[in-house]
Amino acid sequence: MSTQQQDQPGRPSPSRWRLQVVHRTRFSYGGPVRSSYNEARLTPENSGRQTTLRSRVEIEPAATAYAYRDYWGSTVTAFDLHTPHEELVVTGTSIVEAGPEPAAHAHVGWDVLRGREVRDQYGELLAGTALTQVDDEVVAQARAAAGDLPPHEAAAAVCRLVRGHLEYLSGATHVKTTAMQAWRHRKGVCQDISHVTVGMLRALGLPARYVSGYLHPTRDAAVGQTVTGESHAWVEWWDGGWCAFDPTNATDVGTRHVTLGRGRDYGDVSPFRGIFSGAGSNGHTVTVEVTRLA
Predict the structure, then answer these.
(1) What is the CATH code of the structural domain delimited by 110-269?
(2) Which of 82, 87, 185, 200 registers the highest number of CB atoms within 10 A of its CB?
(3) DSSP output for 203-216
């Protein structure tokens, strides 16, 4: 087993939760795999809302790993294996202190958002992608929901529109499902709800990004309570500063949310990706456990 780890001191405060997340991915193969090249995005960020006290990525069989920041600011653990193996297990374990979003910022108007400076700075977060693109009919619904509201209120209206249209249904979609496929199906998971929301916000002229992380689903969770969960996703938009919102649960991002990374869509922040040479894959399993420690 090999491990990549980072530690920081920290103490919990009454307005913050201390959470432990264990994210384990197990790959199995039909025979020996001769070599593989892999990237894991399993290290939570440090920010004004969140402090990562401890984080490690363990790899079985053992591999030499190194960490770097990607283009979007996410921490990536990269490693490759060149000894035959029939199973690969990658486990990310982190302890994070999470709180509410920092104090509100001054919101700008549509005139600023439509200006050249904003469009130059956030052009990549204003353009549609294969996973977030929405068609003209959906854009029209977003504009109708926004009406004459200022940007911050318009974004909130879009979040309500999407959540009212899409029913959360586990297993209804897959990682390659597009925003329009989910919209037409009227069902999806947090990834789909976030993709549709991001697509609508960008169509209105709000820079928007997809956020990957975890959520402890119990609002009044007792200390020591562990739940079996999944990776989670939500959105952020820029209206003079970055605003975070969880459209799947219609709630602000706060003490129960752990942020891993951000990007244009899921493709920029997937927890694991890799290629291998050898026997075919027998599939993989993913387990996530979230525990409130304080």
Answers:
(1) 3.10.620.30
(2) 200
(3) HHT--EEEEEEEE-
